# Entry
Amino acid sequence: MTELLRIERAAKRFGEFVAVDGVTLTLPAGRLTAIIGPNGAGKTTLINLVTGAFLPDSGVMHFKSEAITHLAAHQRVHRGLSRSFQIINIFARLSVLENILIPVLSRRRRTAVSFHVAQRETDAIAEARQILREIGLGGKENVPAGALSHGDQRLLELGIAVGPAPELCFLDEPSSGLTPVERSTVLELIRKFSAERRTTFVIVEHDMDVVFSLADWIVVMNRGQVLAEGPPAEIRENRAVREVYLGEDL
# Structure
């Protein structure tokens, strides 16, 4: 597989707390990866380092062989990195269509235009509407995003994450707070986008049913370090992983 992201000895501490402790990890293109671990394992902090929300205290990161360690978040987006958030992060007062239009225009380097002028961006609008149809929100494009149900807001956030047409997209707990039916819908969309949009997904999840039904490869973190990684069957039988999860049925 072609190497897409390489992380070497990345570290981040907050005061005395070491959130990420010398993580080295390689993510190839096309492999759907899940990052799991107990609370405080460093999963979200690692995403923040890769996507530019935090800068590492040490270590380096390369995306498509380019050093991105000190790039700003928007520069990483323009290079093909995207993410969603553990806590829903949408523009509640904007319409559903406008929420999708923002990342689409960003990829086209047209974010400086007002929404009034953006109405003339017919190609971008058509693309945003297509994304809405794909995520099942095609009939709600004029609804304020904040008026959507929790499940629909999760779908919208997934649409925002794929709006920039990223090559690598991190999804932080995409099934959080969803009903079984909503969760199934989100998982099928991730599979669909992974197959059709040439996007490599990395999900951070606590729901082991989601992890083992979706991931091709699993990375287990504990206390800021990578404890184990491998295919789901191997991780399921890993004794150290089972000890971290206190005997929980994986």
Observations:
- The radius of gyration is 18 Å.
